[in-house]
Amino acid sequence: MLNYLQLKQYRENGRIEAKKSLGGLPKSIWETYSAFANTLGGYILLGVIEKEDKSLEAVDLPDPKGLIREFTALLNDPKKVSTNILSAGDVYEEDAEGKHIVVIHVPKADRTLQPVYLDGDPANAYKRYGEQDIRCDTADYERMAREAAVHTPDMTLYESLNLSDLKKDTIDRFRKRMEEVSPGHPLLTADTETFLKKTGCAAADGQGRLHPTGGGLLLFGKGWALRTVYPMFSLKYDRADRTTENKARLKACTYASQLPPEGALCENVWEFYETVEKDLILGMTFPEGSGTVTEEIRGALREALANQLENTDYFGVGSWVLKGEHKLIFNNAGLFRPEVSAARRGVSDPRNAILKRMFDLTDREHEAGGLAEIYLTWRAQGLAMPVIRQTTRPNVTRLTLPLHPEESRTKADRDYVRELAEDLIVFYLTSHGSARVRELADFLNMSDSAVRRHLEKLCSRNLVERIQEKNVPGRAGIYKLRR
What we know:
The longest helix is centred in the last third of the chain and has 22 residues, at 411-432. This protein has helices at 29-38, 64-75, 138-148, 168-181, 192-199, 214-220, 223-229, 244-252, 269-281, 295-311, 340-344, 353-362, 371-380, 411-432, 437-444, 448-460, and strands at residues 16-19, 42-46, 48-50, 56-58, 91-96, 99-106, 117-118, 121-129, 132-135, 202-204, 210-212, 235-239, 258-259, 264-265, 319-323, 327-333, 387-392, 395-402, 434-435, 464-467, 478-481. The protein is built from 16 helices and 21 strands. It is an alpha+beta fold. The protein folds into three domains: 4-148, Schlafen, AAA domain (Methyltransferase, Cobalt-precorrin-4 Transmethylase, Domain 2, 2-Layer Sandwich); 163-407, 2-Layer Sandwich (Heat Shock Protein 90), CATH 3.30.565.60; 412-481, Arc Repressor Mutant, subunit A (Orthogonal Bundle), CATH 1.10.10. A hairpin with a 2-residue loop joins β17 (387-392) and β18 (395-402).
């Protein structure tokens, strides 16, 4: 939420757009609506100007209610805009230091509704880059069209390739891992072709012949075959302590990293997962005095790696993992398909559904995990909060896992934890069923009063409810998620 009594503290950016609007509804409002809907969402402020020093200032609208009526009428006209993604309460009049402005909160559109376009023309769609609304190019449009499909990209059948283009030794290692996790699974007794077909890694053409799907290629494909479908495929793993010789080998590798310590080339996703798990997860260490490696930590790292690999856009710029001295970074092509706040609460919408299904088969904890598991584990271990950042040129998501304790957080870390507080409360209530203020304050390392403020906001949004305890006076009570 913005503080409208302190507009001067804000600047136009990727999430805020100011429009003077004294002459009526500006035509450019629709480009901004489309851009916010197709990117990360944002706020359009009518009756606000950007001054020379880039700060914002209200100018007082003569007829804010009229602007709201005009905007709402056009918003519901399919000839003007492809879809209305706003909810009740997303358009409202606001007092900004005694001046009347109109606020339009535009959420990120659900992927099935993107691209949000204008004037009946699907090519007339926009994305937000910094302070600018930029018309989508062909690559943007094609990416959004892929994302909109219920059929995820890794479900596509590739009839030009055969099952011989998959690496049998990699499939066998995957099945051995399955056996360790679920020794009685019925797929373990199936032959290779049946196994691939039943897991979605292969499918039949019109004549009944089996071919790899995108998921099968990504997980088990031979390098050359995989790159015929995903020419930009790139997975890299790096360590901060690498030698000059290792740097040169990494730079020379075009589609996958030569991974320390063996320098083995990974041709596909499962080989990458196995090698990174061995070096990063099983070989996990903390800086001296910063933390203790536990099974919970290793489980959270497996979750982070699996989430990265099943949510990567393999048609994008590539993904990498960095094992640093004081932090771990998981950087993948593509934005979260649900809102980040929803993903932190455990909402899942994987970009590659077959990959998610396969990782679920090899990790009994993964199916119920997600980002919520990572955040809760880091909090329980007393470590500084994980940080998620997304950029849109190119589309990239970066998860940073600090390896230093809570008390040594930077100011940026502390600000981020405040930003996350409500999501973390929902995490906690999801995991524990209910909690008192003191319990949440200990978990968040915040004061009771700060926690109460966040709980009040969650209650006002009907996400959380307070249950007064019998014979306990005052503000004491138990908080639960509202059903």
